[in-house]
Structures
1.
Amino acid sequence: MTATGARTGRTARPPSLKARAAARRALRRDLRQAVSDLRTGVRRRRFAPMLHVGRLGGPVVTWPDDGTDDLDGGLREEVAAAVLSRALLTSAEPEAWLTREGHPEPHDVDLAWLPVVRRVFAEAGLAPRCVAVVTKNGWYDPVLEERVVWERLRIRDR
């Protein structure tokens, strides 16, 4: 299989370290913006967790988890699959994040949603750029064990 065309006859190479570092910086920038958007968009101190599937900074499909529905793992999987299928209408490479109150560290809500979301993506044959948790204080990715917290977040216009 040739990725660069039949003329050169070269095969596809894995991304270079420089390309992976650039992709990582872009993801961190997008997650930082998601924290800023949550801070400016939600004025209440207490709010319901919400699952987002789509592109960070782009079109998104959301599902509020207000706690009124008793969702077990199977129902969460159906909800995540439905949200993913709607997100695929606007984005070929969706990612997922959960917004909630509190600090960016493991929480029961995360443990209820994130494994289910990862399983739904895997069943669809997709490898999302991230499945993370975003709070007003920062974000974390439990799989990569990466966490960023800000006391005062400043976003500069480009």
Note: The CA atoms of residues 74 and 125 lie 19 Å apart.
2.
Amino acid sequence: MSDRRHALSPEALTMMDAIARSGSFAAAARELGKVPSALTYSVRQLEDALDVLLFDRSSRQARLTAAGEELLREGRRLLTELDAVANRVRRVATGWETQLTLALDGILAPSAIYDLVEAFYALRLTPAGGGAAAAPPTRLRIRSEVLSGTWEALVTGEADLAIGGAFDPGSQPGLQVAPLGEIAMCFAVAPHHPLAAAAEPLTPECIGAHRIVAIADTAHRMTPITTGVQPGQDVLTVPSLAAKLEAQLRGLGCGWMPEPLVQRHVEAGRLVLKATETPSRRIRLHYGWRSPAQGPVGLGLQWWLDQLAQPVTRRALLERHAGLLL
């Protein structure tokens, strides 16, 4: 048993995660700063210690066996818990978290997000024992998520604060939720797209005859959300709001977009708004955070919550899309 415990080290679990994410031993070795042969040797040692096969050797890619999939799932959970323990210890000792992970929905205005990041790093703290003031000791880690993926990161413990996401938060133990605001959505196409000259209001059947551009939900465990797609409609799936905007500017498809984002493109003649039979959509967004079982939240998280409590900050996150250029 002790050999197995020794084999299941954070380094081994991190190695498994890197191989699974990158899809090959060579790519994982580059990411970890090792040679592929060292990674292969480490995997064989882990397999010997556990007496299981973790990877299918008949495949050229690093394909996990069922046992490997289970180790990966549990390993990622253990790594998250180890990070959480270190974070709690640091928070108890100083009030500041070692790391603060933010899951940010792609619908948020990037310029407003990075204004907040800049303001956080501009904070100056004077050490208790004296000395020069310095920035907060908390490292920020930003995750870009879409729809259910934003909340999944919070629910699974992979994020400390989730901002945005059109998801009904319901009640989750250890989580707090507050409204972020609403954002209006409008149907837009490029001037050269066939729907630009179509009679209004556009019917669902008319829209369904043309390709729609959809952003992929980043959820892995929760049920992914798909909005605005008609049954049987051709879909171009893209990874981000910026990519969706680029696709629609090129006339590669149609779709619903946040009104603050498309407004300047409509004014410049790069996009055309079309009325539809479907009622105008307004998406209600939230932000949520993890609440410690004992004691207050860390000082880093509290700073972000204080900013989000301000109406001007929430409006900027939803409306200040003018800087989104490709």
Note: The chain has a mean pLDDT of 86.
